[in-house]
Design brief:
Blueprint: E1 2-9, E2 13-23, E3 33-39, E4 42-47, E5 51-64, E6 70-82, H1 84-89, E7 91-95, E8 100-105, E9 118-123, E10 131-134, E11 140-145, E12 148-155, E13 159-166, E14 173-177
Parallel strand pairs: 1-7, 6-11, 8-14
Antiparallel strand pairs: 1-4, 2-3, 2-5, 5-6, 8-11, 9-10, 9-12, 12-13
């Protein structure tokens, strides 16, 4: 087993903290996934051999480099190949420079418990399974999203479906407002 530091690269923000979950990690434990704590854009992992991994960063706190603003993000999904070179050097670089903050926002209903609402997200053309993000007390959930096509279903007492495109040329942040849902 080799120790490798996974570093997340982006010029727009620093990941101050997060939980990293990796699937398909090549280890001798036989586990299907492993979790690690991320601090200051990096996490130290143990790996046996090179290969592709699927990763989730959850409960992120980002610090924007432009204005030092801390921003909570619920989830970031990524795929990466850990190479033999990365294992030998002890350092694996994951480029998140093209990823954008995608804020999903529900309208405030009268007496409706917003925090019990869920966003179901499908990343089209990725082979990733769908996943759910629970809205916070303000009816929002934030995702650090790679460019591409997404289908988002907002569901609570009512349901709304939106096709969302995260483009390479978007700014750092994209807010998707859901209309009142019947």
């Amino acid at each position: 087993m080799e120790m490798v530091v996974i570093q997340f690269l982006t010029p727009k923000f620093e990941i101050q903290e997060a939980v990293l979950t990796l699937w398909n990690l090549r280890t001798n434990t036989g586990a299907t996934f492993s979790t690690f704590n991320v601090r200051s854009n990096g996490a130290e992992i143990e790996i046996e051999r090179a290969g592709p991994v699927r990763g989730w960063l959850s409960n992120l706190v980002l610090r924007r480099t432009a204005d030092e603003t801390p921003t909570p993000i619920t989830l970031c999904v990524f795929n990466h190949d850990i190479t033999d070179e990365a294992i030998h050097s002890g350092k694996c670089l994951v480029d998140l420079a093209s990823y954008k903050e995608l804020v999903l926002r529900l309208p405030r209903g009268q007496g409706e418990p917003i925090s019990s609402s869920v966003f179901n997200i499908t990343i089209l053309d990725s082979g990733e399974p769908t996943f759910d993000l629970t809205a916070n007390e303000f009816g929002e959930a934030a995702l650090l999203a790679k460019p591409g096509q997404y289908i988002v279903v907002a569901a609570g007492q009512r349901k709304s479906i939106r096709n969302v495109e995260v483009a390479d040329d978007e700014g750092e942040r994209q807010i998707i407002e859901f209309d009142a849902i019947d």
